[in-house]
Write a structure and sequence with these properties.
The complex is a heterodimer of chains A (174) and B (88). Chain A has 174 residues and is an alpha/beta fold. Helix content of chain A is 37%, strand content 20%. The termini of chain B are far apart. The model of chain B has no long low-confidence stretch (mean pLDDT 74). Classes of the chains: A alpha/beta (174), B mainly alpha (88).
Chain lengths: 174, 88
């Protein structure tokens, strides 16, 4: 028995350790990851293209109940502050495009929507829950992050966006 | 020619594991590996689907759980809410 226990322990511990490694606690990244987004027609947009603007990156899905509440709020924020320099990128992570289209058909929106069925962008951002939003300053750094959504969060978004909009844009040659 | 053991833990003291035991360990390891799957928050569309709920009638189930919890002092004993999408 003495010699037979070792491999069993290893056999039990290895998958557990492997899983623990995959779900390790993520550190907030100061710089937003470089991601490419695909629009409704397949057009490609890079996150870096929006440098100089305050960018709200939102990950949503049609099956996520709080997203149904956050989506109109973010669109309202976009309509109100787009002219001031706010960009809202609503990234859909539905695996099935049809579900996303049905969701969008019921919710008229002005903010640009992108589709990432393979989840490359949420993986790069290390999204921890749905919905997740990241607020980037004009230099492309992640300054605020929200996981989940309740109606009371709307005021916080406005406050944070206004604070970042008030910051000076970086010079052309930083 | 004697068959060589597949794995050896210690050179001294411990008996080497037999080939069959080692193979069995690998099989268990393989099965253990398949049991681990990390479903990321953005991959939970299928899990969040209505058909994945245990109860056909969500309101009825909530009502039933409510009186069962209060009468039996079993609050929280029936699990917690949400479909695991990480929503707060």
């Amino acid at each position: 028995m003495k010699g037979g226990l070792g491999p069993w322990l290893v056999a039990t511990a290895l998958p557990v350790l492997a899983a623990a490694g995959r779900t390790g606690v993520s550190q907030p990244a100061p710089d937003a990851p470089a991601v490419e987004l695909r629009g409704p027609e397949g057009e490609t947009v890079r996150l870096a293209d929006f440098k100089g603007k305050v960018v709200l990156v939102d990950f949503w899905a049609s099956w996520c109940a709080p997203c149904q509440a956050s989506f109109p709020m973010l669109d309202r924020l976009y309509r109100q502050r787009h002219s001031d320099g706010l960009e809202v990128l609503a990234i859909n992570v539905d695996e099935e495009r049809q579900a996303a289209e049905a969701f969008l058909a019921k919710r008229p929106h002005a903010m640009p929507v992108f589709f990432d069925p393979k989840g490359h962008a949420p993986e790069a951002f290390r999204v921890e829950g749905m919905p997740s939003s990241y607020l980037l300053d004009r230099r492309g750094r992640i300054r605020f992050k929200h996981v989940g959504y309740t109606s009371s969060v709307g005021a916080a978004y406005e406050r944070e966006v206004d604070a970042l909009l008030a910051e000076e844009a970086p010079s052309a040659n930083p | 020619m004697p068959r060589r053991p597949l794995l050896r833990i210690h050179e001294n003291g411990c008996e080497p594991i037999g080939r069959r035991k080692a193979l069995l360990g690998l099989v268990v390891l393989a099965f253990g590996g398949t049991a681990c799957a990390t479903v990321q928050p953005w991959q939970r569309g299928r899990l969040a689907h209505e058909c994945m709920t245990f109860d056909a009638d969500a309101a009825g189930a909530a009502y039933e759980a409510h009186w069962q919890e209060s009468r039996e002092g079993a609050a929280g004993g029936f699990g917690v809410q949400s479909g695991g999408c990480g929503c707060k």
